[in-house]
Amino acid sequence: MNWHLIDWVWHVRGNLSLPVQQTSSETLGKIEPLFQEVGTTHERTNDGLVFSKKNQPSQDKMAVFDNGVLSIEKSQDGSFLRYDLTSKTLLFCFLAPLFFLIMAELTIVVKHLQKPSTEVSQSVSDKAKEEKYLIQSPIDKALGVPAPEKKSEKDKEGQGKRKLSPTAAYVFAGIFSILYVIGRIREALSVKSLFRKYIS
Q: Per the confidence metrics, is the pTM higher than 0.85?
């Protein structure tokens, strides 16, 4: 399986043009403070930098990323910074809706499996309960207490339907889908802006 086709889900890639006359060493020197945070280890070479984060604090400007590679590349149009960053948070936000959708489908399956067996048992138990509670004592009759009303079939169906519902799972799936899309776009723009700020 070619993971490169789907790893965009948890990878943020991009490139950034460097100012004219700025060397690779100067560029890496300017952005290196970003990787001197608590929980971050990094290794710098002549034209690149590799970093890894573990238990990074929320104050870290790149806390959402767990590891990544940055490299300085040159072309006819000039030098540019290329980066490839990995985020477990983005992966979790992408998988969360799938989890809730699976839960919703399982709820529907279980509901259908329970329906035939429970309908028979419920009808028997409901009849017994109704016969028991619908009998009015002579004292109640003498006092003029109204007889208990029998539940309609509509009320019984409504109670059964409320027991299992996939609605909540669908709602959570929608929430996490929105969070992923917003987070994916936001983090891609944010990290590019952050690198541009330090380089400039």
A: no
